[in-house]
Amino acid sequence: MKALEIMVQPVVTIRRDTSLEEAARIMLNNRFGCLPVVDDSGRLCGIVTESDFAAKERGIPFSTLFLPQVLNEWIPLQGIERIYQAARTTPVSTIMGTDPASVSEETSVEEVVKQMLYRDINHVPVIRDGIPVGIISRHDLLRIMIADAESG
């Protein structure tokens, strides 16, 4: 089975200068777990995922201590609302992953799964000539199991 057979399309993309608020709105309204980020020519240059918006525990440089960070800012947990409000107009380029995994339409599902496991990711953009044409999530892989059960 190929990526083309299980990918969700058309894919909704955003640009580097899209605000975090707009990206969050698109993700929430469409129930997307990620959005591919494209450059001026429509080529994939990054990806924004739900986890990019979430608080993460990060090590303090030159220390053994860990503190929470959200949207790349160190925070006391009671300050999270203030940071989200202040970041509304911040461009997605500040938090996006800049080396996204991607596959072609002809990539085998086995290779897609390997990419997800190897890179510990939940979403893989499907590209044609560098331009996103679909997206595959771990959720989409469940369709293979259902399709096999219904046909067998």
From TrEMBL:
Signal sequence extent: none
Superkingdom of origin organism: Bacteria
Cross-referenced SUPFAM superfamilies: CBS-domain pair
Pfam families registered for this protein in UniProt: CBS
CDD domains the record matches: CBS_pair_BON_assoc
Domain annotation CBS: ranges: 7-64, 96-151
InterPro entries reported in the protein's UniProt record: CBS_dom (IPR000644), CBS_dom_sf (IPR046342), Diverse_CBS-Domain (IPR051257)
Keyword Transport: no
Keywords for the protein's UniProt record, in alphabetical order: CBS domain
Protein name: CBS domain-containing protein
